[in-house]
């Protein structure tokens, strides 16, 4: 395209007789070429790039770790939510006849999913095994433990308030000494989770802002470093958009590598923690497993980090490149 | 082709680089621009390539007023002007081939066309065998010829040269000038800023002489200068 010389007709890309598809393919190919060129530039001067990418990785790791923590905690919470269990401690003086009638009665209750009776004898045996007070217990002439009935409410009545209502109803019964629904800790867990989520929200915003700023500053420095080259490009007629593009792609790459580093750090941390988590889960007789990021979440992480890199470079590139004007001197 | 109408340029701070310059270089003409250092040669060239804008007056290229060209369109104007610099302005990290190909890459030529044109341009300046070299492996004269190849690779109608022989010995300088004559002979308008008066005298072309920002002389140089040097 020539502004000043209409008759001038260079056989440039714009002049070649290409169909729409051909042109689209051309644009895609040239963009891919520039994306790879930007990667080559990073490779050619790796030290500042590695440092930047490392900082980005750390910045992105923090919110991602919190995300994983919340995700796992929610799983635990759900697990407990479903297993909301009411323990009914029965009166000591019930005959076995009364006991079996009562158990039958509870079992048939409309809101009860299932029951499990831990008889006083079973409880004593278990206590002996686990507590190590076996010898001391021998000295007792009478089993001090009550019969305990574990009641699991139906799914619809498993929520904290419904279970509490159910507990109240059971406590009215003559056979029940007292009941226990350990719901408080569930509430506490809930609010702690909420706190972590809120903290994660604000920290994520801060750390994302820092990613944008870090990328912006790195790109700014690399533009200043390549001032001479940019001047030459401007002298031979490159548009600002043409000069900007490789820097934008560099920002994209920084985001990509930062995201990869964040993902790797999470995987390494999970691997490192999985041993101790398994031990704890074992102690709680739970088959809880620590879960990391699935493929979709990982792609989201990459997408977010790449957009942040792009935004960071976009914010500085326009102005910085406009500032550089060639000088023949 | 290049027409100045009462052009003055005052830099911020009050330095008057050019005062009421008027001249017209026809299409296909070759001319020298001379004068002492600081006489305004570089400023005049910058006004043509829109690196600077005139404070007063108008510059026309091919009848188009450059003051009507917005900043976004400046790159397209520069694609019509081949520029050659005293310090070559090559990209150090790129090979000779890549340096010469730059204007074509910017304009979006296909790889096949680029290869063909770069080879033609390098052949013209006699460096076809050095396309894989890097600028620092070449002598000063060779680097300058790479710069010239880059300036002519997209066959611009205008060629501007700012002290193209500044660092070269007389023999090499003359070779470079012969190159410009070759480009001129195929219809390119050529404007060469130089203070190498001996060279100008030998070449016998129209010479614009600037003195303290004013046009002191416009015409053929007399032979006297040449004999002295």
Automatic annotation (TrEMBL), chain B:
SUPFAM superfamilies: P-loop containing nucleoside triphosphate hydrolases (SSF52540). GO terms for biological process: cell division. InterPro entries: AAA+_ATPase, ABC_transporter-like_ATP-bd, ABC_transporter-like_CS, ABC_transpr_LolD-like, Cell_div_FtsE, P-loop_NTPase. It is a peripheral membrane protein. It is found in: Cell inner membrane; Cell membrane. SMART domains: AAA. Homodimer. Forms a membrane-associated complex with FtsX. PANTHER family: CELL DIVISION ATP-BINDING PROTEIN FTSE, IMPORT ATP-BINDING PROTEIN. Belongs to the ABC transporter superfamily. This is Cell division ATP-binding protein FtsE. It comes from Catenovulum sediminis. The lineage of its organism: Bacteria, Pseudomonadati, Pseudomonadota, Gammaproteobacteria, Alteromonadales. The gene is ftsE.
């Amino acid at each position: 395209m020539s502004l000043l010389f209409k008759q001038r007709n260079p056989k440039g890309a714009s002049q070649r007789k290409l169909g729409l598809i051909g042109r689209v393919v051309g644009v895609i190919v040239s963009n891919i070429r520039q994306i790879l060129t930007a990667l080559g530039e990073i490779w050619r001067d790796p030290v500042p790039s590695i440092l930047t990418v490392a900082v980005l990785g750390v910045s992105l790791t923090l919110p991602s770790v919190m995300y994983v923590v919340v995700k796992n905690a929610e799983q635990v919470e759900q697990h407990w939510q479903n297993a909301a269990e009411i323990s009914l401690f029965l009166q000591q003086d019930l005959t076995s006849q009364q006991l079996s009638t009562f158990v039958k009665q509870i079992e048939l209750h409309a809101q009860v999913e299932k029951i499990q009776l831990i008889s006083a004898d079973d409880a004593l045996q278990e206590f002996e095994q686990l507590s190590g007070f076996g010898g001391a217990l021998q000295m007792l002439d009478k089993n001090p433990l009550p019969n305990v009935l574990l009641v699991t409410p139906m799914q619809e009545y498993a929520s904290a308030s419904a279970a509490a209502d159910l507990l109240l109803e059971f406590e009215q019964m003559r056979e029940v000494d007292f009941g226990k629904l350990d719901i408080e800790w569930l509430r506490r867990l809930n609010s702690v989770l909420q706190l972590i989520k809120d903290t994660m929200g604000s920290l994520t915003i801060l750390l994302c802002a820092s990613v944008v700023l870090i990328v912006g500053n790195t790109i700014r420095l690399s533009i200043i470093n390549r001032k001479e080259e940019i001047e030459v490009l401007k002298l031979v007629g490159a548009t600002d958009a043409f000069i900007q593009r490789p820097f934008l792609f560099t920002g994209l790459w920084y985001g990509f590598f930062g995201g990869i580093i964040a993902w790797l750090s999470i995987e390494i941390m999970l691997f490192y923690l999985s041993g101790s988590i398994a031990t704890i889960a074992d102690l709680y007789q739970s088959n809880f497993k620590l879960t990391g990021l699935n493929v979709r979440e990982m792609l989201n992480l990459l997408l977010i980090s790449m957009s942040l890199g792009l935004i960071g470079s976009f914010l500085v590139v326009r102005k910085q490149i406009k500032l550089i004007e060639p000088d023949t001197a | 082709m290049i027409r100045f109408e009462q052009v003055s340029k005052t830099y911020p701070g009050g330095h008057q680089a050019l005062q009421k310059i008027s001249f017209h270089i026809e299409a296909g003409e070759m001319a020298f621009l001379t004068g002492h250092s600081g006489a305004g040669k570089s400023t005049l060239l910058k006004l043509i390539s829109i690196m600077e804008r005139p404070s007063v007056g108008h510059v026309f290229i091919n009848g188009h007023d450059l003051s009507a060209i917005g900043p976004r369109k400046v790159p397209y104007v520069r694609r019509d002007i081949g520029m050659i610099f005293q310090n070559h302005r090559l990209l150090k990290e790129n090979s000779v081939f890549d340096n010469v190909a730059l204007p074509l890459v910017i304009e979006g030529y296909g790889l096949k066309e680029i290869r063909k044109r770069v080879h033609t341009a390098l052949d013209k300046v006699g460096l076809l065998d050095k396309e894989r070299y890097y600028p620092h492996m070449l002598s000063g004269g060779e680097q300058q010829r790479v710069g010239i190849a880059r300036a002519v690779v997209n066959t611009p109608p205008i060629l501007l040269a700012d002290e193209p022989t500044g660092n070269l010995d007389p023999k090499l300088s003359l070779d470079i000038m012969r190159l410009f004559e070759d480009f001129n002979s195929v219809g390119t308008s050529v404007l060469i800023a130089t203070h190498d008066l001996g060279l100008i005298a030998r070449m016998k072309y129209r010479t614009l002489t600037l003195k303290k920002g004013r046009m002191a002389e416009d015409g053929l140089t007399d032979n006297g200068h040449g004999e002295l040097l």
